[in-house]
Amino acid sequence: MAETAESNLYGDLDTSVPEIRLFALLPSPQPNAPLEGQLQVVSLHSPPTYESLSYAWGAPEFTQPIIVNGQTLLVTPNLDSALRALRHEEITRLLWIDAICINQRSPQERGHQVTLMRTIYSRCERDLLWLGPNIHIRESDYSNPSEEHFGEGMQLMRGIADKDISVLGVMGQKFASYKRNRLERLLRIWKKQQSEKETPDAKLAARIEQKEAELSSTANDSAWLLSYNEQTALEMVLFSPAVWDRLWVMQELSLAPKIQLVGGRHTLDWDIISGFLGDTPYADAFHGTYSHHTVQPCVERIFEVVQKIDHQRRIMKEVAAGRRESKLMDVLARFRDTQSSDPRDKIYGLLGLVSGEINIEISYDLTPQQVFSSVTAAIINESGNLDIICQRPWTSNTGFISFANGQESSTEQDRLPSWAADFSKGGQIHLFAQRSIFQTGRPSCKVPCHVRDGVLHAKGTVLGQIGPILQQDYLESSRQYADTTWMPLEWLKLYLGDDALSASESDRPYVTGESAFTAFWRTLVVDCAAYPMTRLTKNQVEEEDAAIRSKWLRKLNEPTDPETESGYDGEAFINPGIHAMWSRITYDWVFSITTNELYVLVMQPAKEGDIIACLDGGKVPVVLRPLEETSSDGKKRYKFINVAYVHGLMDFGAEDSTALREKLGLEDQEFWLV
């Protein structure tokens, strides 16, 4: 926070009006002249024309003096640099700046001003996004761009957005050359493989024909490849500056009517970036070379953050027009990887982007644990389901809240209940039921949810108990680097034995009536194909089942040398979409069989003895750990571990499950999650 040697700089604001302070930055023709300004108290009902400033505070080093209302206020070097760049030579500039306009020493005022953020940024004339540089940044450091870097990147962005042929022509030639070289190399390999076969391979011949057709059409490609220097120039503006990691900036940029990026003396209007991103076919045609020389669309890398912001800006416009809602969980998930020094701001800093009424108290007197628990409950009540538990992209292995410095808190008051989302940590959604692909539990849960002393009451059904986990590599950190091509066959031998490949449905039926082998491989790919994620059709199952039975038997009976086997012949699955699903889940999941013979996929730290349940309002099954402790009234308590896949029961809540319930002996029960 900004610091001052005087205690009477800030008077009380009238919260009933409501009031804010604006900072009038006085002009000076001398760049090195002391920074001076005045604070003005104004009503948000009829404020004067003002601009807002978005920037990264940087390290909490309040070393730079500015004069405010005749008193000395110490600010960070980055804010000092921004004010010097923004100061006019002859006219006063009226700004809203959080570090100056809010009394950072008052938790009550901070909490109240947070409730006004949506209005503050919505009513400004424009938001100025300060990229840098500041006086303590090394220009040679890749992550800290210089003023010249900003100029180069902004000029390139304008040329791309304007479809300047002098810029695009060279990029197009590079992409065509790259694609031709890659296709020619692939064709040489495949044609050599075909020539060495005694009988021509029809599938390989079809692939060769397809790639030859692609090669002949490369001259007509409308695609562009950025050079390393061009990629770097864009990253210096749109990726590298620390401001793109700051959580508060996400809200500020999403709400402001206009945005101007400022890098030293260089500027770039957001509308130029937004127009480029909105031209989807054109934007997607730009590619860059990344690790191991892979070519990927730039929108997925360089423009990743600005695309999220632009998406939220479009949503807010639809919200204002009454055409859409902006839900709390969606907003928190979209910006989950941004940073804030106070973990509570992972919530408070984004509430201005949520439409509708939400029952969340903004108070810095609450602990992070209290905030995160109450927000998780609020999301359950808002949605009427348990997506925040079953589908949350926030991970926590310890239960302790993480702070901006990466350290875990060490006090019991900051230990989260296992069911509450740790919003201080980013992560990924491990099962994609947010697309309504699965519906294991009943569609909704009772709301308002019942939480007492940190314990959440839920209802549902125990599906089974996890049996032994036989894979030796399950706990090995190096597993992610292992060759997973034929791991499915190895797991099959561990759990079902070699004879499962030739057994029929009648010999070894699964609970669904299909063969054990069919149920096994469908479990390994969560019964889906990619991309996009879709459930397997009956035809896909029949075709894949016959093909991989034959292939796995051949592999089992006639092992080949892995050094000479080509990638084309070596993939365990035939259908590319099904193999893509296996590649997606292979590093996180492990197969097991429950004590009642259900095939499941689970993740660490799930272990033998944990139960798998479907909860009312949960689209996917969850892993729960029974605890020895019970409440005073004898109610059994559980710890939430993570989610699971259970083959044959992923549609348990969307169809009549009476027969399956009776067959497995399943009954509803209550759960108390701690």
UniProtKB/TrEMBL annotation:
InterPro entries assigned to the protein according to its UniProt record, in alphabetical order: HET, HetReg/Transcr_Mod
Domain Heterokaryon incompatibility residues, every copy: 50-252
Superkingdom to which the source organism belongs: Eukaryota
Protein name per Swiss-Prot or TrEMBL: Heterokaryon incompatibility domain-containing protein
Native species: Bionectria ochroleuca
